């Protein structure tokens, strides 16, 4: 390769890879139309890229978030008060009169077998608003027919005597023991059909009918067909 000196720029050297004829034509151009000696032929208006420079990123405009919806205020849950049931009046321990049939509920439990007899509990419950007293043994008799005619003797009393103070709503019991009519000779018993019992409160007044259908002795056999014990707190 021949070295050709540029008359306008004596320091300019040929670009590697160009021929002598190409360099001569390039050397005859004005310097303003020639490229860098290191880049060869340049296009008008072309600027070499700067590889070591980086354009600073433009600051991004702050984005505004939509306003948050207001948080509803928390309210304390209200629990309805528990339902209360009316309670029986309290017993103040003052004087109490005898329990009467008007403020006394009388019933009988289902009988249970005890040898030749059936035993049931007579239940006395105070339905009044004041305490009352049960003293001793209830009066018990068998009755028949719609008129409540008594059949046989009253029940004999059995066991020690006791007193029970019944507060309003409280209850007491007394055991009633009735022997089967078949446990007596027929002539000593003389069986008849009864509808139930008439029960008087212990130490009080009045009488209450309690259903207990079945045969009973109209005579007075020995030992007594029916016996009743004293009241006891339930």
Q: Any overview of this molecule?
A:
5% of the residues lie in helices and 32% in strands. The protein is mostly beta strands and 234 residues long. The protein has two domains: 1-42, no CATH class; 97-233, Immunoglobulin-like (Sandwich), CATH 2.60.40. Strands 2, 3, 4, 8, 10, 13 and 14 form a seven-stranded mixed beta sheet that branches. Mean pLDDT is 78; it is low at 1-6 and 35-42.
Task: Give the SSE map.
Layout: H1 20-27, E1 97-98, E2 104-108, E3 112-114, E4 117-126, E5 132-135, E6 139-144, E7 149-151, E8 156-158, E9 163-166, E10 171-179, H2 186-189, E11 191-200, E12 208-217, E13 226-229, E14 232-233
Parallel strand pairs: 1-5, 8-13
Antiparallel strand pairs: 2-4, 3-4, 4-10, 5-9, 6-7, 6-11, 10-13, 10-14, 11-12
Order of helices and strands: HEEEEEEEEEEHEEEE
Name the helicity range: under 10%
As a whole number of angstroms, the C-alpha radius of gyration is: 62 Å
Q: Which second-level CATH architecture of the largest domain applies?
A: Sandwich
Strand content: 25-35%
Counted by DSSP, the helix tally is 2
Overall outline = elongated
CATH fold-level assignment of the largest domain: Immunoglobulin-like
Largest sheet: 7 strands, mixed
> How confident overall, as mean pLDDT?
78
């Amino acid at each position: 390769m021949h070295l050709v000196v540029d008359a306008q720029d004596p320091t300019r050297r040929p670009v590697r890879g160009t021929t002598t004829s190409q360099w001569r034509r390039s050397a005859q151009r004005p310097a303003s139309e020639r490229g860098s000696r290191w880049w060869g032929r340049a296009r008008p208006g072309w600027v070499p890229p700067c590889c070591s420079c980086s354009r600073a990123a433009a600051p991004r405009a702050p984005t505004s978030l939509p306003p948050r919806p207001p948080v509803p205020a928390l309210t304390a849950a209200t629990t309805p008060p528990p339902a209360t049931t009316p309670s029986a009046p309290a017993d103040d321990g003052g004087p109490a009169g005898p329990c009467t049939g008007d403020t006394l509920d009388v019933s009988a439990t289902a009988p249970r077998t005890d040898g030749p007899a059936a035993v049931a509990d007579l239940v006395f419950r105070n339905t009044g608003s004041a305490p009352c007293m049960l003293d001793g043994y209830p009066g018990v008799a068998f009755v028949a027919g719609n008129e409540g005619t008594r059949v046989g003797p009253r029940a004999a009393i059995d066991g020690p005597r006791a007193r029970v103070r019944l507060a309003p709503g409280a209850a007491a019991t007394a055991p009633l023991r009735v022997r089967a009519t078949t446990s007596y000779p027929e002539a000593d018993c003389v069986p008849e059909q009864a509808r139930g019992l008439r029960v008087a409160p212990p130490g009080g007044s009045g009488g209450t009918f309690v259903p207990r259908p079945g045969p009973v002795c109209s005579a007075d056999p020995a030992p007594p067909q029916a016996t009743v014990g004293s009241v006891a707190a339930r």
